[in-house]
Specification:
The chain is of the alpha+beta class. The chain has ten helices and 13 strands. About 60% of the residues lie in helices and about 10% in strands. The strands form five sheets. It has a four-stranded antiparallel β-sheet with strand order 5-6-7-8, covered by helices on one side. Strands 9-10-11 form a three-stranded antiparallel β-sheet. It has a two-stranded antiparallel ribbon with strand order 1-2. A hairpin with a 5-residue loop joins β5 and β6. The N and C termini lie close together (about 10 Å). About 35% of the residues are buried.
Length: about 450
């Protein structure tokens, strides 16, 4: 056997040994990261070379960009109704007391108290009860207004946090892009950096919809769909801003460094930011408007009947204050608040006149125009508020459930492509281990053959 042939055999053995090591390295990394979120399985890509040897070209991550993109989109679509539903449940709870609707119950109790007064127009106890029930109803409206304000403030706080998270993540993505561009080509560390960036992109997509464009150097450009660029390679181009200055609702703006914000609210198509915007600008605004409309109509209808009447002291006055009437500002007329005797039971001072109290009690069953809608009872209108909230909440929940099903299917698809199977990795480990052992034996055999050849010479 010639020295050239022996050297060739040693080269083949050496390449087999190194290739087995590369395979074991991939298996080791896969096993170590089996539970790491977003990790993409590594595979040693092999190639033969002239002379019969084998080479591990690189440790490549097994991933499908299309599936990853669809997962980001599905995660974004799920996050919007989830965020909206969480807040809508809180709004629904505002109307609920321990035994059904707080608001419905207290409105009914006020009309019932006037009915009791109609049964005894001269009664002091009945007037006290009317004042007490009216105060309880007013307190309920004030509580609702305060709680709506709290939910609105919490929504704004959540929006700030989400916007800040997106901006911070954009800076991290730009930094990881920089590391990816400078990492040795076809290295396992580079692939791990790509996985890290993909996780950041997924987390951003859960907050706001994004488009991701891959470059030839493995960096990415991130932008708002149909809108401006946030990150281009290792450069943070612009940032998001939350604008609460417009009374019509919260807005998301895009700003270049040192520049003024451009309104991109209409471009926010999904993600928790969209869900929170819907709650802030639509759901809460609608609920607040319905409450204020209810209050304004209740005050108008009761005062229209009470003001012309004669109170227990022989005078006349409104029942509720008539200025600045909202759920947060409704109040008793000063005369009624200071003395229940100033509550009118009849249109005259005649004994037994109960016409005013009877008419106000009749509002419980009388259809009135509340806002601009079809005439209906107060109970029916309050029920419609609850029904509207329930429908909004259910739609959000159903949308989240559909998106969750789609996301689960896509994640299962990704797991089949990029996920780690410990059983499969165990098989691969044994195969590479035996290949390594065989390569070592082959090298020993080739070395012995060379030694024999040298001894003959």
């Amino acid at each position: 056997m010639s020295n050239t042939t022996t050297a060739s055999l040693l080269g083949i053995g050496r390449s087999a040994l190194l290739t087995s090591q590369a395979g074991l390295n991939a298996v080791g990394r896969n096993i170590a990261n089996a539970a790491t979120p977003g990790f993409s399985r590594l595979r040693a890509e092999l190639s033969t070379w002239i002379g019969g040897g084998v080479a591990a070209l690189r440790l490549a991550a097994i991933r499908d960009r299309l599936v990853d993109s669809r997962i980001r989109d599905a995660a974004s679509e799920r996050a919007a109704p989830e965020a909206r539903h969480d807040m809508l449940v809180r709004i629904e709870d505002l109307l609920q007391g321990t035994d059904g609707s707080r608001l419905q119950e207290n409105v009914s109790k006020l009309f019932a108290a006037f009915s009791d007064l109609a049964s005894n127009p001269a009664g002091h106890t009945e007037r006290n009860a009317v004042q007490t029930q009216a105060s309880a109803l007013i307190a309920t409206f004030h509580d609702l207004a305060d709680e709506v304000a709290t939910v609105r403030a919490d929504t704004e706080s959540a929006l700030r946090d989400q916007v800040d998270f997106v901006n911070q993540s954009m800076a991290q993505i730009a930094s990881v892009n920089r590391l990816i561009a400078s990492a040795p080509p076809d290295s396992a560390d580079k692939e791990l950096l790509v996985d890290q960036r993909d996780q950041l992109l997924r987390q951003v997509a859960e907050r706001i919809s994004i488009d991701v464009v891959h470059s030839s150097d493995a960096t990415v450009q991130v932008s708002i769909p149909g809108g401006p660029v946030l990150v281009d390679s290792d450069n943070v181009v612009g940032a998001l801003e939350l604008d609460l200055s417009d009374p019509s609702g919260a807005k998301i703006a895009y700003a270049l460094p040192g520049g003024t914000g451009l309104d991109i609210t209409g471009m926010v198509a999904s993600g928790s930011i969209e869900g929170l915007l819907d709650v802030h600008n639509d759901d809460l605004a609608s609920f607040q408007s319905q409450l204020d409309t209810l209050v304004a109509t209740l005050v108008t209808e009761v005062n229209a009947l009470h003001t012309p009447g004669v109170n227990g002291n022989g005078g006349s006055n409104a029942f509720f204050l008539t200025t600045g009437v909202t759920a947060g500002t409704i109040a008793l007329d000063a005369a009624v608040a200071s003395d229940p005797s100033n509550i009118a039971a009849g249109a005259t001072a005649a004994a037994g006149d109960n016409s005013v109290a009877l008419a106000i009690a009749g509002l419980a069953d009388r259809a009135v125009t509340i806002g601009t809608g079809t005439p209906q009872t107060f109970a029916s209108y309050i029920s419609s508020i609850s029904a509207d909230l329930g429908a909004r909440s259910k739609n959000a929940l159903d949308s989240a459930a559909y998106s969750d099903t789609l996301l689960a299917a896509l994640e299962e698809q990704r797991a089949q492509i990029s996920g780690v199977s410990l059983d499969e990795e165990g098989t691969n480990m044994l195969a590479f281990q035996r290949s390594y052992e065989a390569a070592a034996k082959f090298i020993r055999a080739a070395d012995e053959a060379m030694q024999s050849t040298l001894s003959i010479l």
